[in-house]
Amino acid sequence: MAEGRPGATPMGESLLFLTDEQLRQGIEAMFFAYRGFTADPDRILSELAYGRAHHRAIHFINRAPGTTVNNLLSILGVTKQSLNRVLRTLIEDGLVESRVGKIDKRERHLFLTADGAALEKTLSDAQRARMRVAFRDAGPEAVAGFRRVLEAMMDRDMQHIYTRLKDSGS
Amino acid sequence: MAEGRPGATPMGESLLFLTDEQLRQGIEAMFFAYRGFTADPDRILSELAYGRAHHRAIHFINRAPGTTVNNLLSILGVTKQSLNRVLRTLIEDGLVESRVGKIDKRERHLFLTADGAALEKTLSDAQRARMRVAFRDAGPEAVAGFRRVLEAMMDRDMQHIYTRLKDSGS
DNA sequence: TTGGAATGTCAACAACACTGACATAAGCTG
DNA sequence: CAGCTTATGTCAGTGTTGTTGACATTCCAA
Questions:
Q1: pTM for the complete prediction?
Q2: Could you give phi then psi for residue A81, rounded to 5 degrees?
């Protein structure tokens, strides 16, 4: 989207939202909001001896059941060792099931068990509740803008992954 | 989930943006965007043997020069031990100066040195550059919505801190 | 059969958070 | 002044999450 009224003055009227001060406020808003964003799930997880990494794994396994380990790695952007530590505990605890691939037997396909799905629901209910309040308070146009800015802030790879997930879920 | 029809929805026009699917997309957008948000500073910091915690300290000391340790603690939301570890290295490396309070000598007031200010500029230039592109691509209305949603997502305490900082900086 | 891909595992390490305990200095209150 | 509180710093231990590097296993494909 290359914008830019051809004839308008450069600083005329409305590039105010691009001043360093405005950008800094955006940065701080991201920082404080992310804390709120993770606060509710974090509280639940800490009582279960799990952390954010477990939440993320559970979230995306729920979102794309049967996903392979490699696919999950590219979504989460961590090393396989790091993910493996988390997956191992989730599998040991009976929240995640790992099935050997039928076509390619090297691959492991990941699924939530009933217990895993229950925890996922608990976590995402809490996180969605906050998001719902924020969305409702801000209104639909604000939500559209929120998503537009966030999407533009992602790395290109993440944009693709995000879009792919988004389209698969609707 | 069969939805769609813009005109005749059960909830009266437009509460579509509050469906679970929409909320989940918002959640994933936050997750992926935050990765992008921290990516550029993280790259710079990793070459200097610093981490995100150092960045946050530097950012807020720059934002509120002379702030006390306790004030910084409430902004960052970590324990004093955690913050102290970071501050100690920054002071040792000559990026931050700690001055005993004149009125209350128990307090330490924190300032960036010239070197500290230089690093702050490097980091915030990188982070602002990405934010600027995202803001420009999304447009002013989207930016306003972005900020409205983020603000509504914060914990109440953080809303107050955020607002106070915002008003002090403009 | 050989090479490479996917996965898993072990070890070591670092950043960053936590709790708990204790020390010091300074301010405040009775 | 004595005693309590506050602000800060420090030490020790622990946990989660990330990293590298090395190596083994399995299995597909050329």
A1: 0.91
A2: -65, -40
